[in-house]
TrEMBL record, chains A, B:
GO molecular function, one term: DNA-binding transcription factor activity
Pfam families in UniProt: MerR_1
PANTHER family, A to Z: HTH-TYPE TRANSCRIPTIONAL REGULATOR ADHR (PTHR30204:SF98), REDOX-CYCLING DRUG-SENSING TRANSCRIPTIONAL ACTIVATOR SOXR (PTHR30204)
Chain ranges of the HTH merR-type domain: 1-70
Protein's name according to its UniProt entry: MerR family transcriptional regulator
Keyword list, A-Z: DNA-binding
């Protein structure tokens, strides 16, 4: 398809597409003559992902370029590729290791991962930004005086493991590795608000069932 | 306890406690003489919640006062009281009803709630800010061209219902209604980042189990 059709089908203006091309967020089309390039479904898919990152996720252009670099790096293993793209997304800052709440949180996260037998999560440990996010979020609870620990988190972790299995089953319905990785990145930005809203609706529903409205 | 002890035990400076008292975020202590007031465990608990809302949730003081008004309104039913406090927290803006993606999202959310038999969620419908959040989040996916529908969301909704049952079981371990409502509000601010991090860790773990690192 030509640029005009790519614009129409994606809902992205030709000026914005040209900007994404210049910024290296979108691969150039196949040049058919000096002034015309031909685009295909992979460009449409990539535009969708660029919009998800930049317009919805508010990710800076440089970060989006870095994320897409990971998405496209076929030399990486699948877990690293699915995860590495997310690692480039905005992360929580490094926790303050002199804070006793951080030390307590780290101890509880270690206990949790041991009790669950999550070997990779333990092995990656603080290398993983999601591990760090968990320590920081739990440290905040502990600092405020909420006594959350490994035992309280374990049933939630098991349910989120079921959610993660569903996530990967869904990714596996996609035909190509490129589509799977792109979908994983888009989901990290777009699907979290859906999951959070489903959680809130389920709380309302369950509360009404137990206690009435 | 006196103000100095309340400050030490809560980790909140006496100046900040006085500010919260002036702003009506904290109930006055029991006046023992012209210059001294006595505080109890309920003040300590409330200070913890005020910090959760203001320091962690970045909720404006006026909104925090509104949330705490709902928390303290014993004339409300339990579901409304648990939920109403959350309803005062920052919400997504009203969706643009002329947008076809919003109409499609609303249709899929209706189908989802019917298929799940979530009667309260259907009855409250757009009155509920979490219902609105779900429509807006799904509309964003649809607008970008990701064909998410009721069938794809249903397994996630069922898992989030299990999470919600666990949430309410946990609330029920708290002795008083005031503690239950306060904990529900604190959890809405503080626990979502924990749940999200557990989801990410579970994805890493499951991906490594299926595909290696």
């Amino acid at each position: 398809m030509r640029l005009a059709e790519l614009s129409e089908r994606s809902g992205v203006s030709t000026a914005t597409i040209k900007y994404y091309l210049r910024e290296g967020l979108l691969a150039p089309g196949r040049q058919v003559n000096a002034t015309t390039a031909e685009y295909d479904e992979s460009h449409l898919r990539r535009l969708r992902l660029v919009r998800a990152l930049i317009q919805v996720g508010r990710v800076p252009v440089a970060t989006a370029r870095e994320v897409l670099g990971h998405v496209d790096d076929e030399s990486l293993g699948r877990t690293i590729r699915l995860g590495a793209a997310l690692w480039a997304l905005p992360q929580v800052p490094e926790p303050d290791e002199t804070d006793p709440a951080v030390a307590a949180a780290r101890r509880e996260v270690d206990r949790l991962l041991s009790s669950l037998g999550w070997a990779t999560a333990r092995e990656l440990g603080p290398l993983s930004p999601v591990h760090r996010s968990l320590v920081v979020a739990l440290a905040t609870l502990i600092r405020l005086g909420y006594a959350w620990d490994a035992e309280l988190m374990a049933p939630y972790a098991k349910l989120m493991h079921q959610v993660a299995m569903r996530d990967l089953d869904f990714l596996e319905t996609h035909g190509s590795e490129a589509e799977r990785v792109e979908t994983a990145v888009a989901a990290a930005v777009l699907f979290e608000p859906v999951l959070r809203a489903l959680h809130g609706l389920a709380q309302e529903e369950e509360s009404a069932r137990r206690y009435g409205l």
